[in-house]
What we know:
By secondary structure, the chain is an alpha/beta fold. Helix content is about 45%, strand content about 15%.
Amino acid sequence: MNSKNKKVVIIGASSGMGMEVAKLLLDEGCQLGVAARREDRLLALKQFAPDRVVTATIDVTDEDAPHRLRSLIDEMGGMDLFFYSSGIGKQNRTLEPDIELNTFNTNAMGFARMIGEAYRYFAERGEGHIAAITSIAGTKGLGPAPSYSATKAMQNVYLQALEQQSNARGLKIRFTDIRPGFVDTALLSGDFRYPMMLKPEKVARQIVRALKSKRHIQVIDWKYSLLTACWRRLPRPLWRHLKL
Ligand SMILES: NC(=O)c1ccc[n+]([C@@H]2O[C@H](COP(=O)([O-])OP(=O)(O)OC[C@H]3O[C@@H](n4cnc5c(N)ncnc54)[C@H](OP(=O)(O)O)[C@@H]3O)[C@@H](O)[C@H]2O)c1
């Protein structure tokens, strides 16, 4: 990615990794369209480079979210990279229905809604780059967070399917599936102490590197790469009885 003047839309730029990636891309000279529900945080981000940031209030669970995305793209005069960093996630050992259904609504329905619109935009243009933060949580069913790991698996497979479809249609759309381990953001706030926690600023630097080299899949960091490689090889009966 030659960053100067690249037009990048970031959904989920109001906090966490999305916000950190936005700051780095601004340092590189990109023009940004930033979206999320919390407008005040987007406006704070705009202060870093007022003439290179356009903001939009978008809730990915709303039916008009794709329309709002198109308006944002129009306002920017086009889009070269679509970077998706929206998501929610909670442990839910008691399987509270609200948590499960909200997670599906945001991480599965919202994801398909927004990635789909970006895909259709790039398909009309014939080229583009779609990147999304999914998670290592999609590589196995995780008992403490069933809807989170299930929706992350959905995201992994959806991106893979779209990439195959795009190639079959002769489109030049690149896909980057970013899979971090535990990152110290608001999403993990709470009483539970997570092991091997990564700093969002450091993860953001690795994400930008993956975007520039247009990686297909990027696990962050190397320790989680090793961990997921190991747990993929665990025999299924062992996984079924693992106490996480
Ligand atoms: N933290 C981790 O350990 C970790 C690990 C692997 C993957 N991830 C994934 O990384 C992504 C970013 O999360 P994060 O860790 O950076 O957490 P975060 O700081 O909580 O950021 C989540 C972002 O998603 C946005 N969002 C949530 N619901 C939304 C909705 N309905 N419509 C639009 N935007 C919405 C939030 O903005 P508003 O609230 O302003 O709308 C916020 O900008 C998520 O997909 C998460 O699953 C996180």
